[in-house]
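Following up on my earlier thread - several people asked me to post the actual chain instead of describing it. Fair enough. Here it is, all 897 residues.
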Amino acid sequence: MGTSFGRGGATTFQQDLANADCILIQGSNMAECHPVGFQWVMEAKARGAKVIHVDPRFTRTSALADIHVPLRAGSDIAFLGGIINHVLSEEKYFREYMLAYTNAATIVGEEFADTEDLDGVFSGLDREHRSYDHETWQYDGAEMQAASGQRDQEWNARTRRGASVREAGRGEAHGSGGAEIGGEPRTDETLQHPRCVFQILKRHYARYTPEAVEQICGVPQEKFRQVCALLSGNSGRDRTSAFAYAVGWTQHTVGVQYIRTAAILQALLGNIGRPGGGILALRGHASIQGSTDIPTLFNLLPGYIPMPHAHTNEDLDTFVEAEGTRKGYWGNLRSYLVSLLKAYWGPAARPDNDFCFDYLPRLTGSHSTYETVMAQLEGTCTGYFLLGENPAVGSANAKMQRLGMAALDWLVVRDFSLIESATWWKDGPEIESGELRTEDIGTEVFFLPAATHTEKDGSFTNTQRMLQWHHQAIEPRGDARSDLWFTYHLGRKIREKLLAATMAESTSDEQRERDRPVLELTWDYPTKGELDEPEAEAVLAEINGWNAKAEPLSSYEQLEPDGSTACGCWIYCGVYKDGVNQAARRKPTSEQNWVANEWGWAWPANRRILYNRASADPDGKPWSERKALVWWDADKGTWTGHDVADFKATKPPDFTPEEGATGPDALTGTDAFIMQADGKAWLYVPAGLTDGPLPTHYEPQESPFSNLLYAQEHNPVRHLLPHKNNRLQPSGNAPGSEVFPYPLTTYRLTEHHTAGGMSRWQPYLSELQPELFCEVSPELAAERGLDHLGWATIVTARTAIEARVLVTERMSPLRVQGRTIQQVGVPYHWGPNGLSAGDAVNELTSMVLDPNTHIQEVKALTCDIRPGRRPRGPARLELVREYQQRAGITDETGTEV
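Reply from S.P.:
Thanks for posting it. Predicted structure:
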């Protein structure tokens, strides 16, 4: 969504689902995984909305939907692409909205070649290096950026040391904003030019017919056409449809493109920025959104500012020139970054030292969690902190995670209980198999008990970008401490040791310079109580920011590029407005309007629906009274309405910028997508993604079918991490694919949480879901001799696990490419520790990643399933080797472009 609309966050909020006329839930079992938010889906249904659930399994969400559409795991782009084809060919798009607010009329350069021309790949593919050169994807008349992840390759061209300034598109890699656009691209408002985005879309999706959808997805044509009719019939001036998705979409080798397909649909139908519309990204738990805003991601600074790369002689001006945009709010990048540097280093950050820009860490390449595992195995990563993560059972190819940790010098685990990532060295599967011996493992493991959310103050940033404050109820027990306590006091002790070293005569000037960035950090937070717990509100105040008079800021519009403001995260600026913790507000719904802006605080600027300028027509009038949200009040000279306008409040609809204007001042009065360099929603992405400007159906890394649409089987630039313990399986028509005939998908349960670290130690939850199980259809049970409530062994090229058998009609057989296909569903919450123990499903999965976000593909793989319990000890290894030999698996299997 970052490349499509300008920000990576959900475009709407859960309560607004009640205003939808149609809701499509895909890639999510919302009723069971987000049950509190699902009440608003039920509210919409009570008001007459139609609910569609697209999912391989029939779940509680399906049971409450008007239509359940079972489809083959990993085929979602074909399904959504078919709906796009229907909308375009049947002229069901909202033309006025599309012309005003999307890039449909923009003309693409004549060098661009589509998948329709090149049988499944785009122009610019470098097969040797498994990457795309984006140059031919650009607009006609514009010079644009490199794709995300390729920023470093065009440094000379992007800075003063080259011919022009180009940045790598932030896109999904950076979570916010599309690429810079140099010049003014050509457009055709008639939409007739053969190279305009609209016509390219029509050609690209022409082959995604109802017949193709049926053959690829297993969805009957009649049911597919019913979905098309409901979505298109509930979109337009007076009606809106909403999409909701979760990790069922993201955890694929084309996960970003799944979401892109929904973004195209919603922009064509005119559903972005409007009540009852939008795309709701359902995050996995309370503060997943917060962990990307103030990031735990390796390539980001707070507020989705890109992390600098390790270039020589890169100064602040060069970085801003390369990373900022001429038009839109990213044109103010210098203000956001300088204010962040002032929050980090305070008085030490001065104009004469580039505000300590050189103190920031530098990227030397991709350092995703899975590449970190490879670095551990290679010996280049020797220490590891695990805070709220349990990779020993929770990450793809869990065996590789444990082997990586076994190669470390030290490992720190902070958690509520002794999770598998803290005990693998004595009781992990590799100890049982003999692959590892405890006495040979050199890793020093430190387990530090963590405080729960009831034992500390702080905020959650939930799935709809809303910060809600929670107050400490009780003191932590024993040695348990909060994350804030741990981080603050660890930093304090490190600084004390460095300061002592600095005072020593034996310390060299080089060492003193090396330590200066840590010693000059602002680290003077007040503490409270016997435990010296840092004041969480003081951290929130710093994140909000203040001016030179130490007065709290109220908006990121106040941030300055000269060092007179400090702000720890520019998109959170305003959360401590007037010195009041806005996240702690709890005004009842009955005392405010339906948007409820005074419950908590949402970034940015407390807007609840992003891009809401698009809820009004180009003249500033609501598209309809029924769907009014914000509108232009000519008498008062301001935007007004139910929500905070996602637009400069005093900018009239007919505003035209002066020649040479930059930043927000360069946006016209109809540029609704203010984070984009052209102010438009992008149906076609000319730069910003590594794997193509348009979503294209590719088969998962492991699939029982070949690609029906193109000769290109898989995403050609998917991220592979070859290793002897990360073997891949043959797919499609390749010899050996029949050894692993069944698609497998993973999912979660209401009773357990992610990798189980918070739930498998709870007796009530363990009683409700006591054992790992697999869901299979009656037909598959008969085919493979599986007994209900008996045991089954599930095998992939990585390992074999065991699970109880649940024979259920919820897993319905599908007819795909002329044959019946059975699917296996397995929840992923288990591991060997806790009250409810079992094999970890992530043992089965491989480390193959989406190239934009480095997210693993665990929602669609293939397996074999057989009756009985798995072998123990070395016998399990022998079973897997036997399968590998039968399938003819080598180091090269599955690695082809």
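Residues 146-174 have pLDDT under 50 and may be disordered. That should answer part of your original question.
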